[in-house]
C-alpha cells in the first residue's frame, strides 16, 4: 500500500543467498523492515520457482501446535486430515520447486526450526525464506542481518534512504511536503536519532500533522532521556524502537493510550463494533470509540483495512505487544480477554444460526476474517482455569466452520484439548462429542468417531438431553453409512429425524440427515425412496435459501440420475455441486462431485458420441490430490468408492497404459482452483442443460450479539 524505498544492495545480496542456500533467515530488530524486504526478494525470485512462492504470516498463530495448520492454510492445502500436518505437507509438496516465506517466526522459533528442517530434508525442491528477530538455528540456515536504513550526508547528491522514506511518508501526512536545503539537516538529524529504523521513521513522519520537524526532534530527545535515564547511546536497536513507540504512546491522549492497551487483546483484524464492545467502559464511553479509533489510525498506531464487510482495523505486532505491556500493568488483561472471548463466542453463535439460511457464504467469509481472534478466544478458555466449559461450547459451536469451510483438522485439535480438560457430563461436552465424532467420521477415522458418538448418546440418555441424543444418533448413522452398512445407517437416520421432528429442530444438520438417508436408500438400490428424501432436501433448501446442504443434495441427485441413465442432467447437477461447495471451500463436497464427474465423462454424450476417457482420468487425478487434504479417500468406504472404481476400470480398458498414467498425472498437478475450473467445463466443453434454480438471495445481515458472562 506504500512505496518500497531503497534496499537495492540488500535485495541483491539476499537474491544471491536464496540462489545458494535452501534456508535463509532475515534477522534484525522489530520494525527494521524484514517482512518488506523478504516479500520484495521473494517477488523478484519468483521466476526461479515454477511451482510458485507462498507467504505464511505467523503473527496471529500463538500455539506452536497450530504452526503446521497455518502453513497448510496459507498454501491452500487445508488442514482437513487426521494425519499430522507435516505428513500432509511433505506428500502434497513432493516434487515441487517452491519458495515459502515464513514471516514473523520469533514467537515460534523452536516449532519453526523443527518444521522447516523436516520439510527441507523431505522436499529437495523447497526453499524457505524466513523473517525473525532471532535466528532459527536450524540445519543449513544462512542468516542475513538487516541493518537500518542509511542516513548519510544530505544534499547535495541523492537523498539517503532513511530521508527518502521520511519524505515519502511525510507527503502522505502533509501533501506537498518536500525536502529542501532549509529542512534537510533537521530531517537527517531526526532520522539519525531514530537510527534509520523504518518503523520509527514512519511514525515520526506521521507526527507532521501536528508538529514541525524541529519540534518532533525536540520531543524525541525528551522521550529518549525519559526512557533511558539520560543514556541515549547505550541501548541496542530494539530498545531504540521501543523508545520510539513509547514516544508515540506519550503523544497520545490518556483515552487513546487506554484504548491502545485494550485493543492489544485482538489478534488479527477487528471491526469497530468489536472494539466498542470489548474496550468500552472504565474511562472509555462507547460513543467516543469511533473518534478514538480514528485518532489512533491517524497516528499510525492502528492500521485501517478494507474488507467485503466494511472497514477493519489491526495493530502492528510490535505496537500490539507494547499495548499489551500497559494493559497488564493496569491489571486489566484478564477482564479484557474475557470480554474478547464473549464477543467472539457471540460471533460463533451468530454464525451457527446464520449458517442455516441465505447468508451462508457471507457467514463463511465473516468467520474466516475472525479466525485469528477465534483462535485467541479458544486459547484463553483453555489456559484460564474455570473456562473449560466455554472452550467446549465455542469449539463445538464452530462446527459449521470446521466442517463446512475446510478446517476439520484444526477443529479436532481444539475439541480434543477441550474434551480432555472438561470430563464432566455437561450439555457443552455432549455437543463437543458429537461434533468431534462427526469430523472424525468425515476423515474416515471411525476408531475415534464411534467411541465419541456412543459416549454422547449414553450421556444424552442419562441426562435427558433430547437434542444431544438426536445429534448422536444422526452421526452414528453417518458412521454406519461410511462403514458400508446402508441398512443400519437408514435406520439410524430415520430415528434421528424422528427426534429432530419431536424437538422441533430444523437446520443444516437436519437437512444433511435427510440427504444422508436418501444416499443410504440409493446405496441399497431403492432409488424411489432415495429420490423422495432428496427432493425434500432440495425443497427445504430452496425455501430457506440454504446452499451447503443443497450442494450435497445435488451431488446425490446427480448420482441417482446417473443410475437412471440421465447423464446430461447428472453432469449439470454434479457441476453445480462443485460450484457451490467451492464457495465455502468445502473440500469434501468438491472432491465427491469431481469424482462423480469423472465417471460421467466416461458415458456417451449422445448417439455415436463416446465418452472422454482421457478427461475422466484427468479429473480422477485432480480428485486424488484433493483427497490427500481431506483424509481417507471416500472415507475408506467401499460403497462411496464404487463410482471411482467403475470409472477407473472403464478408463483402463479404453486407454493405453501410457495414456492412463499420463492423464492421471496431469490431474494431480492441478491446484484446487484449476481442478474446479476444469470440472465446471472450463476446458470448453458444454456445461449441460443450463443453470439450476438456486436458493434465494440474502437480506442484510444482523450484527452478532456477544455471548458470555462478563
Give structural notes.
This protein has helices at 8-20, 34-44, 67-74, 85-92, 109-122, 161-173, 184-193, 198-206, 213-228, 237-251, 254-263, 272-279, 289-298, 317-329, 333-355, 360-369, 371-383, 388-397, 399-404, 408-421, 427-442, 446-463, 466-482, 486-503, 508-523, 527-544, 548-563, 567-584, 587-601, 613-630, 642-654, 657-668, 672-679; strands at residues 23-27, 53-57, 98-103, 126-132, 141-145, 302-307, 310-315. By secondary structure, the chain is mainly α. The strands form 2 sheets. Strands 2-3-4-1-5 form a 5-stranded parallel sheet, with helices on both faces. A two-stranded antiparallel sheet has the order 6-7. A hairpin with a 2-residue loop joins strand 6 and strand 7. Helix 23 packs parallel to helix 25 and helix 25 (508-523) runs antiparallel to helix 26. The model is unreliable at 222-239 and 684-702 (pLDDT under 50).
Which key phrases capture this entry?
single chain; 710 residues; mainly alpha; five-stranded parallel β-sheet; two-stranded antiparallel ribbon; 62% helix
Amino acid at each position: 500500500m506504500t512505496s518500497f524505498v531503497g534496499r537495492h544492495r540488500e535485495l541483491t545480496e539476499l537474491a544471491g543467498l536464496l540462489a545458494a542456500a535452501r534456508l535463509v533467515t532475515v534477522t534484525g530488530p522489530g520494525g527494521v523492515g524484514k517482512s518488506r524486504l523478504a516479500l520484495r526478494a521473494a517477488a523478484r525470485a519468483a521466476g526461479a520457482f515454477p511451482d510458485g512462492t507462498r507467504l505464511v504470516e505467523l503473527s496471529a498463530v500463538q500455539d506452536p501446535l497450530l504452526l503446521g495448520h497455518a502453513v497448510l492454510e496459507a498454501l491452500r492445502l487445508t488442514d482437513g486430515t487426521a494425519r499430522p500436518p507435516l505428513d500432509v505437507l511433505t506428500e502434497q509438496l513432493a516434487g515441487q520447486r517452491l519458495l515459502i516465506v515464513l514471516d514473523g517466526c520469533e514467537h515460534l522459533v523452536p516449532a519453526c526450526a523443527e518444521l522447516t528442517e523436516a520439510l527441507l530434508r523431505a522436499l529437495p525442491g523447497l526453499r524457505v525464506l524466513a523473517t525473525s528477530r532471532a535466528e532459527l538455528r536450524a540445519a543449513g540456515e544462512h542468516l542475513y542481518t538487516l541493518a537500518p536504513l542509511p542516513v548519510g550526508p544530505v544534499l547535495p547528491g541523492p537523498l539517503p534512504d532513511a530521508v527518502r522514506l521520511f519524505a515519502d511518508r511525510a507527503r502522505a501526512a502533509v501533501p506537498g511536503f518536500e525536502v529542501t536545503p532549509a529542512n534537510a539537516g533537521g530531517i537527517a538529524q531526526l532520522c539519525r536519532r531514530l537510527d534509520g529504523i523504518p518503523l520509527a521513521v514512519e511514525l515520526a513522519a506521521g507526527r507532521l500533522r501536528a508538529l514541525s520537524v524541529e519540534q518532533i526532534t525536540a520531543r524525541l530527545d525528551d522521550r529518549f532521556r525519559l526512557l533511558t535515564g539520560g543514556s541515549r547511546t547505550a541501548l541496542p536497536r530494539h530498545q531504540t524502537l521501543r523508545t520510539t513507540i513509547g514516544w508515540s504512546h506519550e503523544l497520545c491522549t490518556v483515552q487513546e493510550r487506554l484504548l491502545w492497551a485494550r485493543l492489544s487483546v485482538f489478534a488479527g483484524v477487528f471491526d469497530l463494533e468489536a472494539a466498542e464492545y470489548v474496550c468500552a467502559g472504565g474511562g472509555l464511553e462507547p460513543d467516543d470509540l469511533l473518534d478514538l479509533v480514528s485518532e489512533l489510525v491517524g497516528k499510525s498506531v492502528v492500521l485501517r483495512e478494507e474488507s467485503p464487510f466494511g472497514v477493519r482495523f489491526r495493530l502492528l505486532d510490535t505496537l500490539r505487544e507494547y499495548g499489551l505491556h500497559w494493559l497488564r500493568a493496569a491489571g486489566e488483561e484478564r477482564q479484557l480477554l474475557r470480554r474478547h472471548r464473549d464477543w467472539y463466542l457471540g460471533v460463533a453463535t451468530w454464525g451457527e444460526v446464520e449458517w442455516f439460511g441465505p447468508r451462508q457464504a457471507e457467514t463463511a467469509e465473516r468467520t474466516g476474517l475472525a479466525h485469528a481472534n477465534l483462535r485467541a478466544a479458544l486459547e484463553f478458555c483453555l489456559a484460564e482455569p474455570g473456562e473449560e466449559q466455554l472452550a467446549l461450547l465455542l469449539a463445538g459451536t464452530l462446527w459449521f466452520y470446521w466442517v463446512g469451510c475446510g478446517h476439520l483438522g484444526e477443529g479436532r485439535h481444539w475439541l480434543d484439548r477441550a474434551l480432555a480438560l472438561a470430563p464432566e457430563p455437561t450439555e457443552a461436552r455432549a455437543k463437543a462429542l458429537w461434533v468431534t465424532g462427526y469430523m472424525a467420521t468425515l476423515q474416515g477415522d471411525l476408531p475415534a468417531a464411534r467411541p465419541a458418538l456412543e459416549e454422547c448418546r449414553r450421556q444424552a440418555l442419562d441426562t435427558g438431553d433430547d437434542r444431544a441424543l438426536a445429534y448422536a444418533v444422526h452421526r452414528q448413522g453417518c458412521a454406519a453409512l461410511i462403514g458400508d452398512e446402508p441398512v443400519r445407517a437408514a435406520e439410524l437416520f430415520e430415528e434421528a429425524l424422528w427426534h429432530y421432528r419431536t424437538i422441533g429442530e430444523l437446520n443444516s444438520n437436519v437437512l444433511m440427515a435427510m440427504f444422508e438417508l436418501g444416499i443410504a436408500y440409493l446405496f441399497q438400490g431403492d432409488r424411489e425412496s432415495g429420490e423422495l428424501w432428496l427432493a425434500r432436501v432440495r425443497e427445504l433448501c430452496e425455501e430457506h435459501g440454504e446452499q451447503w446442504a443443497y450442494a450435497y443434495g445435488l451431488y446425490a441427485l446427480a448420482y441417482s440420475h446417473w443410475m437412471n441413465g440421465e447423464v446430461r442432467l447428472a453432469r449439470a447437477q454434479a457441476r453445480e455441486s462443485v460450484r457451490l461447495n467451492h464457495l465455502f471451500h468445502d473440500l469434501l463436497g468438491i472432491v465427491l462431485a469431481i469424482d462423480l464427474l469423472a465417471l460421467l465423462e466416461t458415458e456417451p454424450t449422445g448417439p455415436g458420441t463416446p465418452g472422454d476417457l482421457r478427461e475422466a482420468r484427468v479429473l480422477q487425478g485432480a480428485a486424488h490430490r484433493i483427497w490427500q487434504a481431506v483424509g481417507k479417500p471416500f472415507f475408506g468406504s467401499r460403497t462411496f468408492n464404487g463410482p471411482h472404481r467403475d470409472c477407473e476400470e472403464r478408463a483402463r480398458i479404453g486407454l493405453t497404459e501410457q495414456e492412463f498414467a499420463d492423464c492421471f498425472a496431469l490431474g494431480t498437478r492441478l491446484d484446487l482452483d484449476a481442478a474446479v475450473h476444469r470440472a465446471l467445463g472450463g476446458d470448453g466443453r458444454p456445461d449441460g442443460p443450463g443453470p439450476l434454480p438456486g436458493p434465494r438471495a440474502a437480506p442484510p445481515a444482523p450484527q452478532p450479539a456477544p455471548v458470555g458472562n462478563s
